[in-house]
Amino acid sequence: MTLYITQLIDSLDVGGAETLQVTFAEAARAGDIRLTVIALRDVGGSAIAEKVQAFGAQVVMFPARKVYDPKRFWRLASFLRRERGDALHTHLTHANILGAVLGRLIGIPVVATLHSTSIEPRHDHPALRWLETLALRYGVQCIVAVGHQVAEAHRSRLRGKPIEVVPNAVSLPPGISAAERLALRREMIGDPARPLLISVGRLALPKGYPDLLTAFAALRQTHPSAALVIVGEGHLRDELAAQIAALKLEGHAILLGARSDVPRLLAASDLYVSASHWEGLSVAVLEAMAAGLPVIATSVGDVPRVVVSGAGVVVPPKEPAALAEAARALLNDPAQRQSLGAAAKAHVTHNHSPAVWLDRHLRLYQEAAGHAGASLQPA
Hints:
Blueprint: E1 3-9, H1 16-30, E2 33-39, H2 47-54, E3 58-61, H3 70-83, E4 87-91, H4 93-106, E5 110-114, H5 126-138, E6 142-145, H6 148-158, E7 163-165, H7 178-189, E8 196-200, H8 209-219, E9 227-231, H9 237-246, E10 253-257, H10 262-267, E11 271-274, H11 283-290, E12 295-298, H12 303-306, E13 313-315, H13 320-331, H14 334-351, H15 354-371
Parallel strand pairs: 1-2, 1-4, 2-3, 4-5, 5-6, 6-7, 8-9, 8-11, 9-10, 11-12, 12-13
Helix pairs in contact: 1-2, 3-4, 4-5, 8-13, 11-14
């Protein structure tokens, strides 16, 4: 029997919530689920959209200039009525607001997922946040948090409404050959023999990239051949490029831009570093662990629950010296790097399986249908 699930998300640009759409699509195909992913913003040429479609899901764009655009609202309502899905799962602020209203209007159970402990200041609009809070309190049947710290961060505004914690999942990447690893390292940093650190994520305030560059500059005082690649795009690119120049790190710290082959880049690297100031449960960290990389990460969100003892190193946020010292210690100890990487991969394999993650969501869809006075009716 096939279930028809609709995912509604603000966009399919690069990001953790967006990457999870790929994981869901892959797991849904194996689980005999018909999936449609609706994006509220068309970013054009989205690699995430292409990957979702490659797993057999339908991707539809409903762009508009503002969240409460009436024309888009009724087009969305018509689409959802016509598609007759079994459950609607929303992600991020605009989707949570629209999904709650549409679910009530159409009579479809709604599950909303919260992905972060905080909001980036440039995206924090009080009116939208107020609307989202009302939507979450009164318009959805089930609220999911991607980590325990995310749930705690939102409890007060939800006034005691239950929050289900479903930690993010990640698929194990295919391996790469020794020749491919060598070629990728040469492409990224020229000399493939250099120690290679990598970090992945939007070039945005929460990711703490200025701290990472400061830490890397300190690391190079003892490891001058080390190289750092930062994979991602964002509004801080020019600022980070200026910092790289100021620290005389040109040719050593490289802004690689957005890439669609992140698992391959991780597999070609030696050490993953996350300098985030806040997170929910970082998909990028999970992907690095799944690739068997030793991880250094700041103790934000649910990172300490994932980067457990023996599977990585956790340091305080906003302390570049601590990042540098941890990287220095691991670069000096190849055996420790190998041990941490193997333990990281084992931890993710055991605790963040996409199949188990999907099953938990399916149970929540069923519960949401019950709360809405309906039931899931597989086609």
